[in-house]
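Minutes, project check-in
Item: structure for the 743-residue chain
Input as provided by the requester:
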Amino acid sequence: MVFLTMWGCSPLKRLPEKDRLIAKNEIQWIGVSSEEVIPKGAKSVIRQPANRRFLGMRIPLMIHGVIRQEILQEKAAERMESGKEKPGMRHWIANVLGEPPVLFDAIAKERTERNLEALSRRAGFLDARCLAIVTELNAKEVSIVYRVDAGPLYSIGEIQWDVSNSGINQAELEGERGIRTGDVFDADQLEVERTDLAQFLKSKGYASLDETYISFQADTLSNNRNVVGLTIEVRPAKYDAEGVAVEHRRSRFRDVDWTLDTLSKPIRKEVLEHLISIEPGMRYNETAIEMSYRRLMQLPSIARVEIPGFMEAMEGAEDAFDVSVKLIQRPRYGVSAALDMTRTDARYGPVLTGVFSDRNVSGRGDMLELLVSAGITSSQPFSYTQTSLVPNSATWSLEAHYSTLGIPPIALSRLRASNASRTDFTGLWSRESRPEYARNSIGFKHGFQFIENPLRDSRIYVDLLEFRYTNIELQPEFKQWLDNESNPFIQYRFQDYASILSRMRWASRWKRNEFSFGNINLGLEWTGWGLNALSPVLGLERNESGQYLLGRVPYVQFIRTEGTWSGTQLLDRFQGLSLHGRLRVGAGWAGQNFNVLPFDRSFFTGSANGVRGWPARQLGPGHAGYELEGLNLVKGLGDLLGEVNLELRKKSTRMLEWAFFVDAGNVWLMQESGVENPIANPRFAWSSWGLSSGIGIRLDFDFFLFRLDGGLRVHDPGLVMGQRWIGQHNPKGSVHLGIGHPF
């Protein structure tokens, strides 16, 4: 009904008689040997791209048609008269959420022809010609086919150097050439080569040399057909009054001055010396200046860094280069607030966080943050299966976080500045009040992090020690439900506990090319194993269940690991089409002292960031059905996780994006839980994978992305055999609201 209403308001019906909508733009390449040599970005030079389509319909154009242009112009005039500069809601609907009609313009068509010719010639098709063919489809629409006769593809022939009078040693450049004989004569690649050569020469001490001194001379009149002779020229620094060439000279850093007058609290000298890569006497290197800038900008107290330089001609073979480093500080103290409108687990609702910051506690590049948060959320109960969207829970937390440069007590001089190592100390108290219980936690964490590989932004995080004490206050009805289950497997998940935990995590980015990239995240945590081995020696007390106690509560004992791989393939960046995937796996093994994972360390799926055909904690474990009576397990919680997500995203306008997705996964139990019904076995089986598919819509407001996803259950392992596949049962699914992309 909505689409029909928008179609009824289509601007096509109100187009002036002479105007024509561009229904389709197509580029045909004639004489091109393969798609691999077609110039990249050809669609981006089309001056009038056709209106975007989704499911074969011009939905953004339909949205635009909801608002009549007469009303839009009238309201715009009223806003101007009243002094309101920003456009109103009608303009936002018509031109941001929607998309104005793209009308045929003969001048724009001719410019596109010239653009395609120029693009083809830059890519090596030096004889390219383009002709546009316009076809009237009906009284309101036309299609345009741009036929590009590419001609032969030119390649690079002999490459020569011309460094005469430049002061550059040709032998020094030979091994740094990125282009080779036989490569395609690509102007964009030559620009990259020019930038790389200039950067290389700057790193060798030539401070005055940049891209403007490097040029390429192409000879297209050689005897070899379709081959271009190339000369790489490095010009002199300048010519004197008599026309004599002045050579480029190397430089060395001489003085490094600091301007710290704007700092209300000084940064320690050893910190500055650790972060800056410039030393007096070392040969000029622009990369060292850039690295110093980035490291100084990572200090919490620094708002801006300026590193101007001055070169002075000196007697002898090399000049002097003086550097002045100016640090502009942020206000030392700060207060901020943030509103989180989504949760990554089974809770939904607003959580307000207030933060007080001291950005320069002791001059060590350190920072202290005090955080207070509170929220009202909707939680999925454990003891029954209906989804709850009514706010029924509350959360409070107090956190103190201190972060400092380096890894104390190791001296900064013994650490590599490129690792950007930092140490963290965190103290936390939190209380969460749910319909069935209230959970109180207090904890302390100490760890550090550092960059393992700057090229891949690969980081390692180590939590040396995390102590946590958790107290769970059960509501009478929920306590009775647990008692009725009479299953330690369930009861242990809601038992008070203490933990002394260690954790390691490795996160890295991967990139195959500019169209294919993603992230990898691997983590491992363990607790209680060493303490369990020492408990008899230490003489720790035991409770009635035989669990050793730490501070009058049993300590947890488990090993838990989790890994995520995500990737993006840009299919057509100019049409906003991309493919995204994620693989997520996890496993946890409980020890003797606490033979199940605590519920807050158990795995679950479903929800806006999991298998989206199910609400949070409604899928699994394994074949577990929806009737909990007699199953002796907690619905949706498991010790083993497997999840695969695929999503095809299509950007319709700058603000509007659509997505098709397919999700598969489940959670399982690693050990028997006393389940008597073999059909509802919660342990791993390939037939227990849940499968859902659906469609989503995203609105990008720049400062956040609002997401609405609807998933339909294609294969439901919680149903009996013969009713699990779609079509064998009444369709079921779930709708999720979220902020940001799911992965």
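Outcome recorded: The CA atoms of residues 603 and 638 lie 5 Å apart.
No further action items on this chain.
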